[in-house]
Amino acid sequence: MAETSKEKVRVRIAPSPTGQMHIGTARTALFNWLFARQQGGTFVLRIEDTDVERSKKEYETELLQGLEWLGLTWDEGPDANGGPDRGEFGPYRQSERTAIYRKYIQQLLEKGEAYYCYCTKEDLEAQRQALLAAGLPPRYNGHCRNLVEPPAGRNPEVIRFKVPEVKVEFKDLIHGKTSFDTALFGDQVIAKDLDTPLYNFAVVVDDALMEITHVIRGEDHLSNTPKQILMQRALGFPTPQYAHLPLILNPDRSKMSKRFADVALSSYRERGYLPDGIVNFIGLLGWHPKDDHEVFTREYALEHFEMSRVQQAGAIFNEEKLDFVNREHMKTTPIVELVTLAVPFYEKAGIAIPSATDANYGMLAKAVALQLGRAKTLADVVEGSRLFFAMPEYEAKLLCWKETSVNDTMDALRGALAVLEAHAANKFEKEPLLEALTPLTNEKGRGVVLWPLRVSLSGQAASPDPMEIMEVLGKDESIARVSRAIEKLEGGRRLF
Ligand code: GLU
C-alpha cells in the first residue's frame, strides 16, 4: 500500500490515556506531525483506550491539551473542546469501536485463524514450568489450537490468533531491513472476548481502516510489528511502512525514568518551559538537522526534517540541553507574547503585577526583558523580576560595601538620591543615569556608591545592574527605594 510515493500519506499517533502524558509521546507526535506536514499528508489522533480499567478521561484531556499546547495540531481525531470528532474515519476512540473489532475477530474465528482458548491462569503457569524444566523457552503451547469440542463445563478464557512459524521481514525506515522469527511467539491473545480486543489486534484493524500509510512510533513497539503484520495478512489488510523512533534514555543510558527526570510533559509546562523550546528539544531526541543547528523553530524543522536521518541509537535526555534551547527561544519570543505567557507564573508566585490597563504596564515588559539571556524558564523570569514589583526586604547592614561605615554609606546614598532627584524622569535610562552618577562614584569610590544603590533597589547582593533596575522602576519608585534605604540605615545606626 505505502510502497508508492504517489499515495497520500496518512500517519497517526495512538496514545493510551493510562497516565500523565509522557514526554516520549510528545516526541512521537512531533515526528508524525513533521512527516505528515512535509508530505502534505494527514495526521490522525487515535485514543487507544481499550484498557477500561486504566484509561481515564482526565488523561485523555491532558493528551489533547498537551498536543494543542505544543502546536502539534491533528487533522482527524477527537475534538479538544469536547465537540464532535474531526474526520471521516472515526470514531477515533477505540472504546467506541467495539462493534468494528467484533466483526474482525469473528472473521478470524470463522476462517480458523483464531480460536477460543480455555486454558486458565493455572494451566498456563503449569505449561510454563514444564517448558522451562525441559530447557525450552516458555510460550503458549497451543493446547487449545485444535480442540474439536470445547472442554465440557468450561468457558473460554481468551481468543488467540494462530501465529504461523515463519520469518517476518519488513523494511523499517529507521532500522532498515528487520526480520523476526515467529517460532518463539506462541499463539497470541488478541481479545479477552468478542467485545474486549487487546492492543495488538485493535491497532491492526484501526491502522487498516483508517488507511494509515506510515506507522511512526517508539522502538518499544518494534517487537509487536511482526505480530501485527501476521494479523494484517490474515485479515487481508495491507502492511503500512514502519519507522521506529529510538528509545529515550537517561544520561546513564538506562531507559528514561522518573528517577532521573520528569517524564510528564505537564511538569515542563508547569516549570515554565515554552512550547517552542520543548518542540525544539524533543526534535533533537533522535534527530538533528544536517547543518547541526541546535536551536530551531517548527518551520525550520519542517524544512529540514528527514526520516532517514533519524538515528537508531538511543537518544539521551539531557536537561541542560533543554535549558539551553529554551533560553534561546525565550530570547527570540516577542516580548509582548512572553509577558502574556509569564502572567500565570506571576499569579502562581503571588506577585502582584500591573494590569494591562495600568499606566505602569510598560514596566512589566521591561522587567521581563531584563531577564532574557539568564532566565531558562518563565518561572526564572518571574523569580528574577520579583524585585520590581514589591519593596524589597533586606537587612540594613547589607547596604554597607565591604568595610565601609554606616555614615559613609549613608553619605553615599544621600549623594545618589540628590543626583536622582535632579535627574529628568524621561531620562531614567541606563546610560544617562550612569553619566549623572559618575562624578559621585569618582569622588567616593564605585563600590561605596553603587553597592548600596544596588541593594536599596533590589534588596539583593547579586542582581542586575542598578542603572538597569532604575530604568525599569522609573524615577518615583527608584527614589522611594533609595529613601527607604537611608531610613533603614538611620534606624539601624546603633544596631550594627
Ligand atoms: N497505544 C500505544 C501506546 O500508547 C501506541 C502503539 C502504536 O503506536 O502502535 O504505546
- Spatial extent as radius of gyration: 32 Å
Could you say which small molecules are bound to this protein? glutamic acid
Fraction of residues in helix? 40-55%
- Care to count the β-strands? 11
H/E topology pattern: EHEHHEHEEEEHEHEEHHHEHHHHHHHH
What characteristic shape results from the CA principal axes?
elongated
Short description:
45% of the residues lie in helices and 9% in strands. By secondary structure, it is mainly alpha-helical.
What does this structure look like?
It contains 17 helices and eleven strands. The protein has helices at 23-38, 57-70, 98-110, 121-133, 199-209, 225-235, 265-270, 275-283, 298-304, 319-332, 335-348, 361-371, 378-389, 406-422, 430-444, 446-458, 466-492; strands spanning 10-13, 42-45, 114-117, 158-161, 167-172, 176-181, 188-191, 214-218, 241-245, 248-249, 315-316. The protein starts with 9 loop residues before the first strand and ends with a helix. The protein has 496 residues and is mainly alpha-helical. The chain is elongated, with a radius of gyration of 32 Å. The mean pLDDT is 95. It has a three-stranded antiparallel β-sheet with strand order 3-4-7. A two-stranded parallel ribbon has the order 1-2. A two-stranded antiparallel ribbon has the order 5-6. Bound molecules: glutamic acid. The site of glutamic acid has 7 residues, from loops.
